[in-house]
Amino acid sequence: MPAFRKKLFAECFGTFCLVFAGTGAIIVNDVSGGSITHVGIALTFGLIVLAMIYTLGDISGAHLNPAVTLGFFAARRHPGKEVLPYIGSQLAGALLASGFLRLMFPSHPTLGATLPAGGSMQSFCFEFLLTAILMFVILSVSTGAKERGITAGIAIGAVIALEAMFAGPVCGASMNPVRSFGPAVFSLHFSSLWIYLVAPVAGAMVAVAGCRCIREEGCCAASPPSLAPTAR
């Protein structure tokens, strides 16, 4: 299998695992009367991302998230020709995961969809800031467009678990457009989906700007030649 196809398969599989485990934990918590708990759900999201970084990071970078892929592209760490295929693979993985969960739990009303607990702007601001923090951490611990290494997995997984733990009850703490899109399609909850499609991407773009202000020169520059080879 050509190397690029392996990358796309890795992104599809990794995103499938993320959505299946994360939203699956929400569903099982609902049907079991709260046996997993909110803390358990947050840890599930963080741990599955950590596991996928260690498993797939050296293949595709383990983006698992269109906002992350677009953030790497904006930081000039990911080639433009690979952006849409990556996002397509992530979308396919999320839809497959939500489809399987619908077959397994046909009567569940939301399938773990992200829904605001309060006002739309409150959730938008949360998702924007949560993703900005996450993307800044990713840019800081990754090599080129690849999230790999011992510290990368721990740092990124920990941030996801932490943000899901304190913000999940308010906004769902998606930070990932396809994580929200998959459950929305199979549960038909589209009213607030725009929040989870727009806010994470905007937050990732702001994180790139923040990286340029804080990190060393060339970290997210217009054309850092030293980073280009590691993005493949």
Write the layout of secondary structure elements.
Elements: H1 3-31, H2 37-56, H3 66-74, H4 83-104, H5 120-141, H6 150-171, H7 177-187, H8 193-214
Helix pairs in contact: 1-2, 1-4, 1-7, 2-6, 3-4, 3-5, 3-8, 4-7, 5-6, 5-8, 7-8
Shape: globular
Largest sheet: none
**Rg from Cα:** 17 Å
Residue runs with pLDDT of under 50 for 5 or more positions? 222-232
What percent of the residues sit in helical stretches (DSSP H or I)?
55-70%
User: Structural class, judged by helices and strands?
Assistant: mainly alpha
Q: Strand content of the residues, in percent?
A: under 5%
Order of helices and strands: HHHHHHHH
Distance between the termini: 16 Å
Number of strands: 0
Contiguous helical run count: 8
Tell me, rounded to a whole number, the average pLDDT: 91
